[in-house]
Design brief:
8 helices, 2 domains, mainly alpha
Length: 200
């Protein structure tokens, strides 16, 4: 703690940033400090502490833990499917309507209008409206719209039945290229999103 404080004082009062290697050397000592304090004073194992505990919704917390377990077991498509379900549960909480924008449903066109090319135009218009609603919601909630779009793009598409249960999962790839770092970033994003949605 004394060494950390010296680095803080040097940076804050003298504008001297700490050397990168000094910071790296402190990481294992800081981790050991937290491990000892948690075990001694809280009776909690450091390995059991997770930011997932900050997620207010019990079902979403459970889904995020299940996704981590699936990813660790090597079943990446299942892990990413669970993340997409967690996203849906966050945005559609039971008994609560979030003030989020939604694109209007895409209309069904008569066959003569489809042949005249209106179907393609309305597809493009609906895609634009949907993307605009997602970006506006991201700005309103205070999340990064690029990370949101990345999560949506890198997880399977899921069709939902009227009772709020997934009816079909559409896998766009094998998802083998998703790294552990990318996966953890998606989990971190969902934790941040969950906390911010709970404040609305």
């Amino acid at each position: 703690m004394e060494q950390l404080n010296k680095l803080r004082v040097s940076f804050k009062h003298y504008g001297t940033p700490p050397h990168a290697q000094t910071v790296r050397d402190l990481l294992p000592r800081a981790r050991g400090f937290f491990e000892n304090v948690l075990n001694t004073y809280c009776g909690v194992s450091y390995a059991d502490v997770s930011l997932i505990d900050l997620v207010p919704d019990q079902e979403v917390r459970s889904l995020l833990r299940d996704a981590q377990a699936s990813f660790s077991a090597g079943t990446k498509p299942e892990a990413l499917k669970i993340l997409k379900i967690a996203l849906h549960k966050l945005e559609n909480p039971i008994g609560h309507k979030l003030p989020l924008l939604q694109a209007p449903p895409q209309p069904r066109l008569p066959s003569e209008m489809q042949r005249a090319g209106w179907g393609q135009y309305l597809d493009q218009l609906h895609t634009f409206l949907d993307a605009s609603a997602l970006r506006t919601n991201a700005v309103m909630v205070g999340i990064d719209p690029v990370r949101y779009a990345s999560l949506v793009r890198n997880t399977p598409a899921i069709l939902w039945n009227p009772f709020g249960h997934p009816s079909q999962v559409i896998l766009a790839s094998t998802y083998e290229s998703v790294s552990e770092s990318d996966f953890n970033d998606m989990v971190d994003f969902l934790i941040d999103y969950a906390v911010k949605l709970a404040e609305m």
